[in-house]
Amino acid sequence: MSTLYPLKFKPVFKDKIWGGQKIKTVLGQDFSPLPNCGEVWALSGVENNQTLIINGFLESNNLSELLEIYMGDLVGDNIYQKFGNEFPILIKFIDANDWLSIQVHPYDDLAWKRHKSLGKSEMWYIFDAEENAELISGFSEEINKDQYQKHLDNKTLKQVMNFEKVKSGDVYYMPAGRVHALGPGVLLAEIQQTSDITYRIYDWDRIDEAGMMRELHIEEALDAIDFQVYDQYKTDYTPKLNSTVNLVESPYFTTRLIDIDKPIKKDYSELDSFVIYVCAEGAINLKYDNVEYHLSNGEAMLLPAVINEIELFPQQESKILEVYMVIS
Hints:
By secondary structure, this protein is mostly beta strands. It is built from seven helices and 22 strands.
């Protein structure tokens, strides 16, 4: 069997009613033919939306095909035992030119019961935010289901939503059950469980080109919503140059930030997991087995689990999101 190596992918572009142009103008991915490109699926094993490998002898294969052959060598033995031939992480870039719907995602048990799917916990890393850009994360006050339903009926739900001003570098963890929405002027990376289940609660009474409103999932969402109010919704962290800083540790993924302006070595020999690199700023060359691989802002790369040691060479000060899983 031929040796695995760092893998790059051909992204899948998604036209969205709320999408904009920053996928092209900021991330430089001007090969999207879509007028309102709202999402780029940069690394995906979702059925019918698989990203294809674009480098090396595995070119044109997808993640499911690789998993059938390489199994734990690709993702880690414990991860393969749990997820089989389904790659468990999905990486997206999202450009909001208008408000996304107020929505919620189901947790694992509910998603499996209803859809035979994983749930959807996710995190957002803000690439770029216009002045006064906002997002919604959770509730601003304690309400019960009856009060929530009254706000829906009266179209006053936003009165009890927690609005947050955002800027570049902000991090938000959105566990399954947390009601949320992304506002206009925000470009971000989304790291999530492999799931495409979204329950729309409110879509701002928006009408599409055909004069139709998008489907809502009011009843389905009710059993998924976490009504608890939390003290803080944004993730606190302090970047440190030429160091690796924890952002999010969850049962579904761990994400860390590598902020570098000089070469560093990384050793993953103790980690039983794949590693995904997402370039959030700048550009790097990654060296493995005497071969260099390039990663630019707005690109993702997969390091198979059998890769232990690599070197990173930043072309300028660069920020890389490092994503992996820990399965006990």
